[in-house]
Each structure stands twice: as C-alpha cells, then as structure tokens.
Amino acid sequence: SIVKKLLITGPFPSSCYIFLEKNTAYRFMGINGESIVSLSIKINFASKIIHQFTKYDFDPVPKADIVLVEFIKRNEGNRSLGQDDISAFTELINMIFLKKKHDVKGGLLTQFSYIQVKRIQHEIGIDLRKRISMITIDEWIKIFNIWKKIGSKLN
Fold first, then answer.
1. Vertex 13, ends 25 and 67: CA angle to 5°?
2. DSSP per residue, the chain
3. Residues 86-94: contacts with CB within 8 Å, 24+ apart?
4. How far apart are the two ends of the chain, measured CA to CA in Å?
5. Which of 53, 99, 117, 149 is the Cys-Cys partner for 110 at CB 3.0 to 4.6 Å?
6. pLDDT at 12
7. What's the CA gap between 137 and 96, in Å, rounded?
C-alpha cells in the first residue's frame, strides 16, 4: 500500500499528510495499543491528528470518520535509535509479536531467558502481566537496547 511505502519501507519523505479513516489512523499511531505497524512507523516518524473532519465535509458522505494525520520524519537528533539499529529493532518486535503471546512475559520469553526477562522487568520497571500491545515505544527501545547488550536466548 501507499502508506507502507511512505512510512515503513521508504524512501521516507521529510513529512507527509494523509487522510485516513479514524480507526486506521489510531492503529497506525498506536493510540489504542501498539502493533508491528505502529512501532515500525513510530521509530521513523512523529505523528499527530491535525484535523477531524465531519462526515458532511465529503460528498458522498462516508460511513466512517475521517482524519488528517501529519507524519514528520525523525532525524538522528530526535530519534532514540540510530539508523543502523532500526532494522534490528524491527526484527526484534516482529519476532516477539508474531509469536502471538498476549502478555509481556510470554512475548519476551520467546526471545529471552527467564532470568533475562526478570532483568528487563527490574531495569525498566515493566509490568509483565500487561498486554504486549501496551508496551510503549520508549519501553520497546529500552528492551531493544538490553537485547543488544545481553543478546537473546537464541544466540
């Protein structure tokens, strides 16, 4: 899709404005929970809804609510990961999300040993019982940095 090309695979624009159905915008922005897609976008872009349209702004009237979302490319100075780490970060979140574990503990145990998961819990202060989709981008970056430092149980 166009959105995937613009925001995930690149080449990336410095900024873009996209009309989206509200629920799709929320999914891409991780508003009701993170996903592989929202994290892949957030690592490269800051986003915000800049306008909420009424249904009557369009002819014909759509069944869904429409919003205009602004995506602004993060540069090296305002991004928590360097360009070289982004593909490894994306690989880690893909490996964890694709295992279909529902809680943080189960998700992390797919890539880390029990002792490593306890270390992550201690260092980050993360609740291992919460849903994997409720881990914020900042927590994912901290998990990734620990993963880089200590490696996974698979190494």
1. 20
2. -HHHIIIIISPPPSEEEEEEEHHHHHHHHTTTS--HHHHHHHTTEEEEEEEE--GGGSSSPPSS-EEEEEEEE--GGG-SS-HHHHHHHHHHHHHHHTTT--BHHHHHTTTS-HHHHHHHHHHH---TTSBGGG--HHHHHHHHHHHHHH--TT-
3. 86/43, 86/44, 88/144, 88/148, 89/43, 89/140, 89/141, 89/144, 90/39, 90/40, 90/43, 92/143, 92/144, 92/147, 93/36, 93/39, 93/40, 93/140, 94/36
4. 34
5. 99
6. 87
7. 14
Q: Write the pLDDT tens digit of every residue in 4-54.
A: 888 988 788 999 999 999 999 999 999 999 999 999 999 989 999 999 999
CA 64/CA 6 separation, integer angstroms:
23
Closest Cα to residue 79, out of 56, 110, 45? Answer: 45
Contact 72, 46 (CB under 8 A): yes
Token pair recorded at residue 33: 């929970």
